[in-house]
Sequence to fold (273 residues):
Amino acid sequence: MDTEALLEAFEEHLRIVKGLSERSVEAYLADLRQLIAVTGDPLRLETEDLLAFLSNFSNKRTLNRKLASVNAFFDFCHRRNLGEKSHKIPMAKLPKSLPKYLSYEEIRSGLALIDRSKLSGLRDYALILFLYASGCRISEALSAQRSDLHDGWLRIRYAKGAKERMVPLAPEALEALEDYLSRREMGSARLWLNNRGEPLSRVSAWKIVKKYLGVSPHVLRHSFASALILGGADLRVVQELLGHSSLITTQIYTHIEQAHLAETVERCHPLGR
Fold:
């Protein structure tokens, strides 16, 4: 079977047997055509040639995408007795990505940009502090009502998984929220409204946070958790405050603590410099 016919058979396999999307099929075929252009007949390919081709990709995510295409192709050939060899290259181990978060100083710098002489500025200022002080998801924040505030605590009623939880709010965040609500003429039960008196949308909230901090609202949730971990909070307390059903989900923040400790040793210890 010539190379083009082989690729056509593989394409049919991906579409019909595997049921892959059009985009995935095109990506697989593009990777294989790139391999063939460099190495020649894929059925006569030596493992050393394949490894030499893969060595051109230093980015591990790109490498793993190429590997997925190559391994699927050679598995297809092997099962149909089309090739003498079955190449199977293990996936590259990807580094664990740490959640992006902002320091307290970075958040303060962003807050300083807000013009609080306007009602919209009071709202934006209060919203950012509210997200950073509560660690709640943006959907939870936008669903919050006045009745959810009790003696410095926020009741999160519309939590993921339909689980309610109580989170204490820092006095500064409460003060900013009360300042905004006292100046607001609209009598809605919702905490966060747009200029027309309608509930603030996710898109609008995203734009507010992005404007002053350059990140998405979810980064403030990570910033809340990271500040607690770096401050010495127990992981199970952070789990409760974030509303995670499993401690495994919360454990990603321990990597931030480890990174912080390593950075501290490197900066402060004479052998680390």
